[in-house]
Amino acid sequence: MQDDALRTRFFLGSNSPVGFVGRFDRLYDPLDGWRAFLIKGGPGTGKSSLMKGIAKSVGDAGIPFELVHCSSDPNSLDGVIFPSLKCCLLDATAPHVVEPKFPGACETIVNLGDHWDHAFLHKHYKEIIATSQACSALHERATRFLAAAGSLQTDTYRFALECTDTAKISRYASRLARRELGPASDQMGKESIRLLSAITPLGPIFFEETIEKLCPRLFVIQDEHGACSRFLLAQLRSYALAAGHDIISCFCSMSPHDKLDHVLIPSLGLGFVTSNSWHEPHLTPYRRIHLQRFTDTERLRLKRQRISFNRRAVRELIGEASSRMLEAKAIHDELEAFYIQAMDFKAVQQRQADLAKRILSGS
What we know:
Blueprint: E1 7-11, E2 13-16, E3 19-22, E4 35-40, H1 47-60, E5 65-70, E6 73-82, E7 87-91, E8 107-111, H2 118-123, H3 125-162, H4 166-180, E9 191-194, E10 197-200, E11 203-206, H5 208-214, E12 217-222, H6 227-242, E13 247-252, E14 255-265, E15 270-275, E16 287-290, H7 297-301, H8 304-342, H9 345-361
Parallel strand pairs: 1-5, 4-7, 4-8, 9-13, 12-15, 12-16
Antiparallel strand pairs: 2-3, 5-6, 6-7, 10-11, 13-14, 14-15
Organism: Solibaculum mannosilyticum
Keywords: ATP-binding, Nucleotide-binding
Protein name: ATP-binding protein
């Protein structure tokens, strides 16, 4: 990409204690005029390369875009979003299958299976199935490690919550929202769901440069245990939406349905982000919020040995999960090799050029 200023990075799914969790269903709104190109095909068929190529073509035209990275292979893409065009490209295959709601009218299926050699793939069906199953088994092992880590994190969170003055946080959130977000509006803001961090074969990855690009005015919330920040961010999210601001809610990959890590408000250049040992922004904050003032630290100190044990064990377990994911990626590369041999990539490149023209023309 020639202009990094046009590019932001996110995840839309991650390996978690309950397996892969994706938020692809919340990515685009057909009722708001969005178009989605749903890419189908196997591993190694050029889905990610096609999306990277189209992102470059659109970016070269000066149009901002979001890259959605794959948590199982961060060098690959699961999607590209062009917010100003109300258009997106998605890898719509497992484990994040997306099917059209309004086919043709809002979604277009891009089937890269049109360009592979069926006979070659069928000839190797036994190897393909065995390799795919071996890869899935390693991902299942990774999930078990993450489930154990998640259980210990929940244990620590519950200790911390017992020592948290939620009423005091509510009063602080109200004052902060009044000062930074303004009064309630007649029209609710819109919410986009993203992840800024994920557990990957390379360990935890955190796209802090996205925060820097979108939110120069930054409130950094220091919270290692997650109780205070979860409560504070949930309230700030509600206040921001009520004030009519469009927001990006970034959830925790270890608790992807209910734990907010960050709330970004690009229209205000304002961000509220959590800082802990898993994702510590190395950015200059406008203000740093230390949450000890909302915590009974003496009471929490009574659990310090248990919390310290949990922290060490979680780090080991997540490390083991990443190792299994790295093994799975190596096997997935073997699976891709079959499809690479079967593909007509010249035809895929032509498909890429046609799609880029179509997106830029709005047709």
